[in-house]
């Protein structure tokens, strides 16, 4: 009897998942292995671990409905998958191609280890584009997103998502099943809840992701305003907030694109719907760029020892409210708007002069939506270590005034700012109330023209 092992990683969904595409073996075991090294080194923080566990529980429910099941183990992924394949005398291990260098290396290692046992089959999925739809061979991927987009043409066509399987092959007799309780894996994660100030609750799993997509498109209809609101900082709907589900593969980009197409069929294509699709394409671009970059995406994985000011940045104690508020939000919710991510990253790298990899590693730990390609790709882009080689610095003080003109965002996360008048004062508390607020760790030269006169408590 032929036996398949489906090795799940960032593809925790039934629909539009190439891993279930037939013909499948007569029996099939589905396994997810939480890398023990991530746990031991803190590379996965408690917020993401909780979201991951919810996603695994939801997936198990869907697999059981279809006559299959899920096995979740904590260990060294290659060793766990290989020993299962050996024990079951599997014919094939199926796994999705991942953008990460470590993930790709894990597949190569499992292929070598299982050479005499079974085949290891890698399948593409999750992205808008399949490799054959790329406008250039991967080795010739354009150095900038704009060039990539131009090469795709004005209206690239993306394939439709595939439906979820109705039934799946039975579980191998006597094979282990089930998952450990989260409190046994990490009690801190099991006890973690986001604070109320974020105003949004992320729940892992395919149907929760689908519900958020429907809500954003059809219930709140907020997608119609995406173009104008996408740089927002406060509220549940200024952007889609689909990133955690996309990152864990609870949703595929093609599913989001197809749902957006249905919305456009009823409401008409708009700047907003086109822009949201463009963001999905950015995600694709980072994915393909990471695959091309391999290990160099990380700029060398050995991180320098963090200087003291790095901990201040992590804890939201730089003295710059726009940075500190975002770092509180990240710690409290596991999520941040794109605008906030860009600013905290820029301040760390360009104004505090720290190694960008420290920031990327901190985000890797904290973000609910951590995605190897998008995270390291965006950090590299800001630091000037990306494909373009040009750094992107943000004038954080002007950004704060522009995107948070009343100081509502900073006061939400730092309530002691509420006593200052709404407006610029809240972004420069060390200027208007120096007795209560310390001078920031770094006040760059080009902020000087924008600084309020000292003690100007009435403020702007
Ligand atoms: C320093 C830094 C680190 C980042 N790390 C991650 C990460 O680990 N995981 C992650 O998913 N995104 C990351 N991003 C990209 C972006 O900030 C988030 O995707 C976005 O804020 C998620 O919110 P949303 O789902 O509401 O996005 P929307 O604005 O609604 O966009 C829809 C989707 O498009 C994709 N997308 C949007 N912007 C980007 C972008 N700049 N790069 C890649 N994909 C994008 C995401 O999948 C997102 O869910 C990072 C950005 C920066 C500046």
Automatic annotation (TrEMBL):
Q: Which GO terms describe its molecular function?
A: deoxyribodipyrimidine photo-lyase activity; DNA binding; FAD binding
Domain Photolyase/cryptochrome alpha/beta intervals: 2-128
User: At which positions is FAD bound?
Assistant: 226, 239-243, 369-371
Taxonomy, superkingdom:
Bacteria
The answer to whether keyword Flavoprotein applies is: yes
Keywords assigned by UniProt? Chromophore, FAD, Flavoprotein, Lyase
**Cofactors that this protein relies on:** (6R)-5,10-methylene-5,6,7,8-tetrahydrofolate; FAD
Co-factor binding comment:
Binds 1 5,10-methenyltetrahydrofolate (MTHF) per subunit.
Q: Which GO terms describe its biological process?
A: photoreactive repair
Q: What does this protein do?
A: May have a photoreceptor function.
Family recorded in the similarity comment: Belongs to the DNA photolyase class-1 family.
Q: What is this protein called?
A: Cryptochrome DASH
